[in-house]
């Protein structure tokens, strides 16, 4: 808990603004890992004050660019239902559903509950169908494909649809098969 006080004189019949900026820096994200995988933005800012110092001078441009993008979609001649669907789906990219780990890779849950993510692993059966990231943030989309091809693809070419964190140790298909065979050793009919 904290308190904040601002002292300012307001002249009769005048208006004064009292701007407050809430900034943060949480470097210790674990996501679905038992170890810290971090947040990419924490590599850009040393603390919450640094975020404020570096972002505040650009705030007007950031707001203007965001409103320009939204207004461009709204001014288009696409049907209203299509414009609404496009903008509503983009909101997911600004939620806790999507995040970048310290090395810059974009990761994602399938969805989000009130206090934690739903279904870990940047699932290919969810994130390979979305289109916005590739069209709006091509370099971020490339990091998701890098994860699939270099951390979720096994020696025999098979691909796991969920990826584990941290990304530093991709598991080979052979290792997974050995674990599965051990777990299912008393079962005669299992598919692998």
How would you describe this structure to a colleague?
- The protein has 192 residues and is mainly alpha-helical.
- It has one domain.
- The protein is 36% helix and 5% strand.
- It contains seven helices and four strands, in the order H-H-H-E-E-E-E-H-H-H-H.
- The chain has helices at 48-55, 59-75, 80-90, 124-127, 132-136, 138-151, 173-183; strands spanning 98-100, 106-108, 111-112, 117-118.
- A two-stranded antiparallel ribbon has the order 1-2.
- The termini are far apart.
- The model has no long low-confidence stretch (mean pLDDT 86).
Low-confidence stretches: none
Secondary-structure element series: HHHEEEEHHHH
Helix content: 25-40%
Q: Helices and strands: which structural class?
A: mainly alpha
Largest sheet: 2 strands, antiparallel
Shape: globular
Q: Report the mean per-residue pLDDT as an integer.
A: 86
Determine the number of helices (DSSP H or I, runs of at least 4 residues): 7
